[in-house]
Predict the structure.
Amino acid sequence: MSIPRRPLSMARRLQIVTAAAGASALLLTGCGGGDSPDSSASEETGQSSSAAATGAESASPSESGSGEASPSESASAGASESGAADSGMTDASQGAQYVQNAVSAGYALNEVGDLPVVTMYTDYECPACQSAHPLVEEAADSLDGEVTVVVKNFPLPMHDNAVPAARAVEAAAMQGEADDYASALYENPDDWTELSGSELDDYFKTTAEEQELDADQFSKDYSSGAVASIVDEHASQAEELGLEGTPSFVVGEESINLDDVQTADDLANAFRDATKDAPEDARTPAGGTAAPTAPAED
C-alpha cells in the first residue's frame, strides 16, 4: 500500500497483501476525482463507468443526477432532496446533538477514549477501499487502547451509488452498527453497485434486516435530512483538507505516509508513528472536536 509523498494526497497506487495462506500482492488504483471512471479497478468489480455526479433527483436517496459536481456538491444535492437537515432531524432516530457529533467525529472502529485519532475518509463503492478494508479492520483491532481509528464519508462523483451507500452506513450508525453494516457493503459490492432506485433502497433495507437492525427505523434514517447532512459535511471536510480520493488517512490535518505498507501490522505501525509526535489536537478526529461514535458492544 503506498501513497505519494505529498501532503493530503490520495492513494493513487495502493498495494494490498492479503492475509490468506499463499497470499500474493495486488496492486490497485485508488479512487479519486481525477481518475478515469472506466479504470481497470472499476471494471474488475463490474461498477458503472458513468461519470455523472451522485445526487438525488427525487425523494429517494438512491437516484442519480447528471453533470459535473464535486463530492460535497453531490452529497448536498441528495441532502436537499431528502429534506433540509434541520427538518429531517425530527424523523431520525437520533437528535441534533448526535448529528453534530457524527459530523465532527465520525464512527469508531475500535476503542474510544483519550487517545490519538486516525481518520479514514472512505467511499464504499471504491474498489481500493473495499480491498483495504480487512487491513484497516485488523490494524484498528491491534491498536485498541493506543489509537482510535474513525471513519468518515467521502463519496466520489464517479460512483453512482456512493452517496446512498454512505447514508445507509450512517443510518446503521444511528443504531450503533456502522462497522458491521459497512463490512457487508465492502464485502459484497457486486450485489449492490449496479442497482438503482427502489431496488437499491430495498437492498439496503434487506441488509439492515440481516444485521438485525430495526429495518423500518433504518429506512426513515436513511432518507432523513439528518443522515444526508452527516454525509454532506464529511465530504466538505475532505475537500477542505485537500483530499483527492479514497481511501485517505489523516491525523489532525496531516495525511499519513503509507509508503512500504504491505500488512496490517505495517499499517498499525504507520498509524502509531503518525500519532506519536502529533499535537494534542490530534486526539480529536480530522475536522472535529467531539468524541467519535463508539462501536456497538458485543
